[in-house]
Amino acid sequence: MFNRFGSPPVPLVPLILDHNLRNTRQIANAFQPLVDHPMRFLGGEGPAVRFIACARDDAMAAGDDEVEKLLEEGWRPEDVALLTTGTRPP
């Protein structure tokens, strides 16, 4: 609706989104440190979040390796999410 950066051309009322319904509790808990206010996690239960530490230059290969492991464990591709920062992986 508006430019990605800058201010919208109309006044808007700020909203604090303090209920997370979309993510599993495990995902919401894992990313709570990125939110600057308390949240209530109301999503369902899910598997543990896996953090894969690696060097920046190795991130794509490490992500690919982890996705392959999940698929080999029997996960369906539509049930796998690879969360990254920066640009979308290929």
Write up this protein.
There is one protein chain. This protein has helices at about 25-30, 60-70; strands at about 20, 40. Helix 1 links the parallel strand 1 (about 20) and strand 2 (about 40). The protein has a two-stranded parallel sheet. The longest helix has 14 residues, at about 60-70. By secondary structure, it is mainly alpha-helical. The protein has 2 helices and 2 strands.
Compact summary:
The chain has helices at residues 25-31, 59-72, and strands at residues 19-20, 40-41. It has 90 residues and is mostly helical.
Strand order of the largest sheet: 1-2
Largest sheet: 2 strands, parallel
Distance between the termini: 26 Å
State the shape.
Answer: extended
Estimated helix fraction: 10-25%
Number of strands: 2
Strand content: under 5%
Structural class: mainly alpha
Poorly predicted runs are none
Task: Output the number of helix runs.
Answer: 2
Calculate Rg over CA atoms: 17 Å
Reading the helices and strands in chain order gives EHEH
Mean pLDDT: 86
Question: Which properties best describe this structure?
Answer:
90 residues; mainly alpha; two-stranded parallel ribbon; 2 helices; 2 strands
SSE topology sketch:
Blueprint: E1 19-20, H1 25-31, E2 40-41, H2 59-72
Parallel strand pairs: 1-2
